[in-house]
Amino acid sequence: MPFDFRRFDIYRKVPKDLTQPTYTGAIISVCCCLFILFLFLSELTGFIATEIVNELYVDDPDKDSGGKIEVNLNISLPNLHCELVGLDIQDEMGRHEVGHIDNSMKIPLSNGDGCRFEGHFSINKVPGNFHVSTHSATAQPQNPDMTHVIHKLSFGDKLQVHNVHGAFNALEGADKLSSNPLASHDYILKIVPTVYEDMSGKQRYSYQYTVANKEYVAYSHTGRIIPAIWFRYDLSPITVKYTERRQPLYRFITSICAIIGGTFTVAGILDSCIFTASEAWKKIQLGKMQ
Length: 290
Description:
Elements (H helix, E strand, L loop, with lengths): L22 H26 L1 E9 L9 E10 L8 E6 L4 E2 L6 E6 L4 E11 L3 E6 L15 E8 L17 E2 L8 E14 L5 E14 L2 E2 L2 E2 L4 E7 L2 E9 L2 H41 L1
Parallel strand pairs: 10-14, 10-15
Antiparallel strand pairs: 1-15, 2-6, 2-8, 3-4, 3-7, 5-6, 7-14, 8-9, 8-11, 10-11, 12-13
Helix pairs in contact: 1-2
Subcellular location: Endoplasmic reticulum membrane; Endoplasmic reticulum-Golgi intermediate compartment membrane; Golgi apparatus membrane
Function: Plays a role in transport between endoplasmic reticulum and Golgi.
Protein name: Endoplasmic reticulum-Golgi intermediate compartment protein
């Protein structure tokens, strides 16, 4: 007796003359197809789009930086002449630089009465501070006015990613114009290393930071201390990493199969229940008529 391979067919066919189309079945079929199309487009949009996954770990991510962090500072002092404004840098490795001038620019404001300082410099990856003051001026003013507006203070690479909302420029727009002109300002920063890895595997290194601030008029036994704008920083050992990912193809195919199979199964059960109820109602009506 020859072997019939068709016995393995689990999708047995029903002749068309044994099936019966109904209006209810047609309506359910159309609604079913529209529902499948909607879910398919939703899944396709999710498959094409990228998602951002974040994780935390303890490490120094940018080991090729030579232990340095790039800093971008942009600050306006509308009541202090540019010849008086300077940037000083100190840290626990013994660095003490007064009047840093490399990669910096001073822009006069208000007909020379004020100054906008823009600087790009590096700091060591150890606790320290940098401050805007008159310490590097050849002659100290009697009453230096340290009221200011911070336009930008950022660390590391600039991240232009819409899906990542972090405190990369937390001091942007800080306005101290109404403060005591003779007060010093302390900004205490906790810097958090941040890594962003795109779909190609390229990594960019930036830094977020939290900030607390206070202002005060300082005195010593010799009298009032010259005010300054201090940025005191410390680094967090925790690194935040953002990774771009796209949904795997197998997961997309699995979702589509689940959508199609599940929708047709539920629709088939619904149609069968409606058809059975309709046939039972017809029999009841025929019984009443007889």
